[in-house]
Every structure is written in structure tokens, then in C-alpha cells.
């Protein structure tokens, strides 16, 4: 029986949560992470602190600090474990659409080429393994901004009579005729590759188009991980700039624990080339202004912020994931973390760090 779980981006938020979860299930875990987050966003966003915790807590974890664009090293690693690999969880990425515009070639080669290398290595060395890819809601570009939005005191909302109002945005939303950002484009390419390796080659690929993925292991940075970075700014007394939309832009936030629980369900009963929108849905969503108020109340710290009229190009005004498709396929899965519980845990971790 295959007994190895291979995780890319293993020292990051979702990767490290996956390492801990599957290690606790008794698996050997191989992780690939070369801390490119520090290159993308600076030393403050480095995942080195989280890697040290993993290595201390998980004795069956083996770390490999190389780049997923390195086909030779990937081939050697997959060749070493071969059919022992039961599951590949691919979380490594360049995750910021602002940063992507700085180095488009780096962004595309990490997100698209890196994903292609991993899919091909899986096909060549362990074709029976399950392959889970963390895609993004940015594959929909700014199409969500075309929804009929209504401005409220603290947030934007979709007009009540729209089909997405009750449950959020489902997988039928178009990917075409929209501004994705270069990051969105590279993730679309990776998303389509993962689908195609399922449909064409029969790999058991599952794609999770995430809303905001968050939790205490998130190394928040100004250009990525808004909830984690808000908490960091509040605890450290750093100023924060809200980019556009009056701070009323809404995101659904799913705790990394709940996302990995969804991965576990897919791993138990995998499908081929399946796509799921996955986020906090109507269960856990918040605007930036609402998040600031909650963080101040829970932490006891005031956050100094300014409002900029300049929104990020292609950024969403309102995005809430409709997760009912996943729930229909895997009715055993459910949320365990509310927004307040997630924030309280993140604040506690930030204070310790």
C-alpha cells in the first residue's frame, strides 16, 4: 500500500497544515519548499520559522529544499519514492497578482511550468496517486465585479435577487473575457493542466479554487494574505493601506484546517479532473472594515490604516465561494472555524512570534 504523501510548498500555510494532518494519520511525508516566499515578499514573509516547527514536531517528515521548476530534481525525488506516493498535494506558488506584474516570467514558470512538471512526474512515476491542486478564485478574473453589487455601511453585497446572493459564486462562472492579472493567467494555465491530466490521462486530479485561505501558520505579507497581514500590522503597530473600494471589499475566509479536511475527503474517494470552489462561503466571510473591527476587539490593539482610492487591477470587490458542489460530493465534510475563531488563533500566534 502506498504510504508517502508528497507536499509542495510544505512550509507554507496550506502545505504545513497538510504535513501535520497526514503525518498524524501515520503517513511518511516528503515536502518540497525552497522558501521562495522570502524572495517574493521579503524576510518578514519567510516560512523558515514554520519549517523549523515542522521538523521539530514531525519525525517522519523529510524536507527537500529545491525549486519545483527543476525537472531533474523533481524526477529524482519522484523516482526515489515511485509507487509509494499515495497523494501529491500541490500548494507551492507565486501567490500575488501584484507581484506577478514585477516578474511575469518568474510568476508563470513557477505557477504554470512548475505544475506541469509535477503532473508529468506523477504520470510517469505514480499514476495511481491522487493529485490535489490548490487553484484560486482569480481564475475567474474580475468577472465577479460585474455582479449587481449594493453598497452597505461596512461592505459590498450582491443584490438579493441574484442567483449568487444566497450561497456565493459557483463553478459555472466564466473564465473568459475578463482581466485576470498575470497571476490569474498563470493559475488558469495550471488549473487547465490539472484538469486535462485528469480527463486526458486519467489521473485522479482534484482542483480547489480557493477564496482566502488563512490560519495561524500564514506568513502574511502586504502583497498576499490580507487577513494574516492585518493581524500582523495590528499586533506590531504597523500602518496598513486599504487599496480601493472604500475598504468594503468582501472575501470569504477558510481556515487551513478546514481546507485540509476537504482534501482528506477527496483523497478517500477521488474523482478525475474535478473542480471545486472552496472558501468560507456564507459561513465565514468578512469585509476589510469588518475584519479590522474584529481584530481590534479581539486583540486589544488599534490598527492605523489609510484608505487609498487606487484599487488593485483585477481585484475582486465581492467574492464568496459557493461550496455546495463539494458538499454534495462529500457530505461528511463541514466547517469547524468561524471568522472570529480563526482571527483569535491568528492573533495569539502573531503575539508569540
Question: How would you describe this protein?
Answer:
There is one protein chain. By secondary structure, the chain is of the alpha/beta class. A hairpin with a 4-residue loop joins strand 6 and strand 7. Helix 8 crosses helix 12. The protein is globular. The model has no long low-confidence stretch (mean pLDDT 95).
Give a quick summary of the entry.
The chain is of the alpha/beta class. The chain contains twelve helices and 15 strands. It has helices at 13-24, 36-41, 48-57, 71-81, 97-100, 104-125, 182-199, 226-236, 256-268, 288-299, 324-329, 339-352; strands at 4-8, 28-32, 61-64, 85-90, 130-136, 149-151, 156-158, 204-210, 212-214, 240-243, 250-255, 274-278, 285-287, 305-308, 318-319.
- For the residues shown, what is the average pLDDT? 95
Q: What portion of residues belong to β-strands? A: 15-25%
Count of helical regions: 12
N-to-C order of helices and strands: EHEHHEHEHHEEEHEEHEEHEEHEEHH
